[in-house]
């Protein structure tokens, strides 16, 4: 496969995954913010996705959603993310299924329809966000049903899981800052619950631990759960698996990527909640983020080194 | 519900051939198929079908980008739902005529880059060849596989008021539009369900398979690596490039994906370098190799021409074919047919005046209102002077440029392009059309897909069919 194509496939899925995470977050915070705006403000979300030199902020829910979805001056707005996803898809059309291309292209056309911003102003914001989300769900379904399991699929999966880990660790880090500001146990519970909801793991948590929110259980689920598709462990495991597939079919050179992933997987798997508490959750997350950064750079060098040879 | 109002305001243009009505305003029999259908269809239903076609083009991403003020706007190439219909007999003549022409043009290009008999025998003046901007000295003495230079041609035809098809341009470099031929047919299948098979309309869908076969046969490798080289995502024909690559199952590459090592061309893959055997390039000659042509080009590949001359890679169409579709050379194509094939041309040329000849220049300036003046190396409908609609000042300015370098200009009488029915604001109106059939030449001869791209000037009274200037297209049906 062309190195450029591999790169574009990774970024296609990274952008689609990022868009999905942002929409989930907006949807959840909209509800939480109506209950207790002081606990669930918009500012930290906007700040996390803003460009470094942009200090725009707002606490008006509709204004925030509008900014996060439509603002073309904001590089992580949904409209910009989907435009870039589409450009990547457009340049790899002969490698992705027809259905996937139509899916991404129709999403782009939907978002750039001039009447859409008005629908947000006048209609139900949740329904609005759900409509955007449905394109992401369709994308996942189309990938599963129409994309053959080969190099394209593996590179796309690498992008997807890489981005997902980044999103989970970023958002968990935001929540930790908020939690550290309070000593109120009940308030802390709200934050943990909110974190689970934003990752879509609330139901699973209830099934496992009932309605008792303890820090240890939440951390174990977010970081170490083997079956929860939005746990850090699950994503690293999948990332590792797809990298191995690529090495197996000789689309990737065996370099220290495999080592980095194997090491990170073991670290997450075998770290106990006590040792996490000992080093501090913040440090633990920072370590994961650093490792992921190295892995991401290492993937870059794989295709860039070939591209320059 | 009968829909008679659809036909109510169809007024034929004077001295113009109409594809649907004969001169006694009777419908030609080949149009019965569509007339029966239209009469039984309500205006609302037709309008819905038009709306459907726009949505289909957008959602499939069948768009081209127009750049103005450094901003790209994605547009769809307007599609008219009424097909243009060609009889088997008409098609037979077109088919034979284009094949004859391409045979002669291929022989001409080979001759020009080798022995130049046609110059020595005094058929074509040498200075015309050497002053042609698309003549490539770099191709002198280069042998190409099976002596085929023009693998892909999109010959533009128009039908004059005598009912005959004339060749307007040969388009032997990197003709585009074939993806619209394919896409328009897919749309027809959806807006006229069942009509195509019932009337035995000849299929066009084989084009990508034939193209792939012809491309792969150029290589002596058992499993050649055929790629399509595109200038990239910002090129206005990018949609076509990605569609053809997808339909042929080949890799779509950009210049930066390729490199030349030891006179072989490779593509940069995640698994190291992979040799490339055949390149269907949609990049112009000038940009193909920064070492030999425009040094600043980033669209091409450094060293590709050297690899080509060594026979290590095939480039399609061959570099240098532009010498044969120059508008000054066009005049000589009938002579080429007689010279190389000893046959009379089946398809006629349009009368063309060479402005470098004083008598032609005088004639053209006297009859300027009836003339169109074109640059010999121009394309896309740009840089033309349409005598009947230009102001005195525009004519004066244009002639000034012509006088500076008259060899660069030719003039032709303003033609009466035939008209075909188009659905405009819910009613049928005649609009000017041309026809671009696509011909593929390979080891075993020439194949022409029955049909092609019918372009239409959607503005009333306009003769310009180019997509960049308000043109649209129609599906083209050839009856079995």
Describe this structure in words.
- The complex is a heterodimer of chains A (309) and B (480).
- With 309 residues, chain A is mainly α.
- Chain A has 15 helices and no strands.
- In chain A, helix 8 packs antiparallel against helix 12.
- The longest helix of chain A has 33 residues.
- Chain B has 480 residues and is α+β, with helices and mostly antiparallel strands.
- Among the domains of chain B are: 111 residues, Rossmann fold (3-Layer(aba) Sandwich); 63 residues, Dna Ligase, domain 1, CATH 3.30.1490.
- In chain B, 30% of the residues lie in helices and 23% in strands.
- The mean pLDDT of chain B is 92.
- Chains A and B meet through helix 1, helix 5 and helix 15 of A and helix 2, helix 9, strand 8 and strand 10 of B.
CATH architecture annotation of the domain at 206-316 in chain B? 3-Layer(aba) Sandwich
Question: Which chains make the largest contact?
Answer: A-B, 26 and 25 residues
Oligomer state equals heterodimer
Regarding CATH, which class of the domain at 206-316 in chain B?
A: Alpha Beta
Helix content of chain B: 25-40%
């Amino acid at each position: 496969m062309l190195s450029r194509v591999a790169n574009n496939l990774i970024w296609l899925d990274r952008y689609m995954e990022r868009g999905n995470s942002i929409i989930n977050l907006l949807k959840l915070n909209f509800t939480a913010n109506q209950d207790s705006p002081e606990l669930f403000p918009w500012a930290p979300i906007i700040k996390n996705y803003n460009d470094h030199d942009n200090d725009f902020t707002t606490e008006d829910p509709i204004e925030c959603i509008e900014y996060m979805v439509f603002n073309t001056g904001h590089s992580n707005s949904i409209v910009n993310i989907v435009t870039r996803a589409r450009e990547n898809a457009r340049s790899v059309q002969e490698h992705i299924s027809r259905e996937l291309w139509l899916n991404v292209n129709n999403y782009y056309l939907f978002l750039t329809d001039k009447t859409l911003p008005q629908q947000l102003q006048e209609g139900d914001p949740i329904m609005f966000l759900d409509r955007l989300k449905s394109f992401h769900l369709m994308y996942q379904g189309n990938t599963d049903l129409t994309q053959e399991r080969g190099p394209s699929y593996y590179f796309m999966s690498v992008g997807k899981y890489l981005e997902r880990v980044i999103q989970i660790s970023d958002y968990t880090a935001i929540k930790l800052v908020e939690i550290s500001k309070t000593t109120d146990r009940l308030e802390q519970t709200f934050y943990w619950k909110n974190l689970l909801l934003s990752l879509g793991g609330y139901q699973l948590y209830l099934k496992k631990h009932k309605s008792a929110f303890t820090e240890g259980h939440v951390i174990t689920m977010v970081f170490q759960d083997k079956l929860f598709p939005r746990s850090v462990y699950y994503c690293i495991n999948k990332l590792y698996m797809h990298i191995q597939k690529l090495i197996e079919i000789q689309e990737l050179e065996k370099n220290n990527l495999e080592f980095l992933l194997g090491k990170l997987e073991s670290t997450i798997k075998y770290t106990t909640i006590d040792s996490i508490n000992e080093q501090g959750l913040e440090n633990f997350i920072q370590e994961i983020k650093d490792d992921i950064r190295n892995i991401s750079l290492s993937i870059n060098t794989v295709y860039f080194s070939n591209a320059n040879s | 519900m009968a829909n008679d109002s659809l036909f109510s305001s169809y007024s034929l243009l004077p001295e113009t051939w109409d594809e649907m009505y004969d001169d006694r305003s009777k419908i030609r029999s080949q149009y019965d198929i569509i007339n029966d259908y239209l009469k039984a269809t309500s205006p609302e239903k037709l309008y819905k079908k038009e709306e459907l076609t726009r949505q289909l083009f957008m959602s499939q991403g069948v768009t081209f980008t127009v750049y103005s003020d450094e901003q790209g706007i994605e547009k769809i190439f307007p599609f008219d739902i009424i097909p243009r219909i060609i009889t088997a007999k008409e098609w037979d003549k077109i088919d034979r005529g284009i094949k004859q022409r391409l045979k002669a043009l291929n022989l001409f290009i080979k001759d020009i880059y080798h022995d130049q008999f046609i110059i020595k025998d005094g058929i074509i003046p040498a200075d015309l060849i050497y002053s042609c901007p698309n003549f490539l000295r770099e191709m002198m003495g280069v042998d190409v596989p099976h002596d085929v230079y023009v693998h892909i041609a999109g010959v533009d035809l128009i039908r004059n008021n005598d009912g005959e098809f004339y060749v307007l341009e040969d388009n032997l470099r990197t003709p585009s539009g074939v993806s619209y031929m394919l896409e328009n047919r897919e749309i027809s299948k959806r807006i006229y369900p069942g009509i195509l098979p019932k009337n035995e309309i000849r299929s066009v869908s084989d084009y990508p398979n034939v193209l792939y076969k012809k491309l792969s046969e150029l290589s002596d490798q058992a499993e050649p690596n055929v790629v399509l080289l595109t200038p990239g995502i910002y090129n206005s024909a990018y949609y076509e490039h990605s569609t053809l690559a997808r339909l042929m199952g080949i890799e779509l590459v950009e210049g930066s994906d390729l490199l030349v090592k030891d006179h072989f061309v490779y593509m940069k893959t995640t698994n190291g370098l992979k040799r490339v055997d055949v390149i269907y390039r949609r990049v112009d000659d000038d940009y193909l190799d920064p070492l030999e042509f425009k040094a600043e080009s980033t669209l091409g590949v450094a060293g590709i021409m050297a690899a080509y001359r060594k026979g290590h890679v095939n480039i399609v169409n061959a570099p240098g074919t532009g010498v044969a579709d120059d508008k000054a050379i066009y005049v000589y194509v009938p002579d080429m047919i007689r010279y190389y094939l000893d046959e009379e041309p089946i398809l006629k040329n349009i009368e063309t005046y060479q402005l470098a000849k004083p008598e032609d220049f005088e004639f053209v300036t006297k009859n300027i209102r009836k003339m169109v003046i074109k640059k010999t190396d121009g394309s896309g409908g740009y840089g033309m002077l349409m005598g009947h609609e230009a102001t005195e000042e525009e004519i004066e300015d244009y002639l000034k440029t012509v006088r500076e370098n008259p060899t660069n200009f030719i003039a032709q009488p303003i033609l009466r392009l035939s008209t075909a029915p188009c659905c405009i604001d819910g009613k049928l109106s005649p609009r000017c059309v041309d026809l671009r059939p696509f011909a593929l030449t390979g080891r075993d001869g020439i194949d022409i897909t029955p049909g092609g791209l019918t372009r239409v000037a959607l503005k009333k009274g306009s003769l310009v069919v180019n997509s960049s200037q308000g043109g649209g297209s129609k599906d083209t049906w050839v009856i079995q």
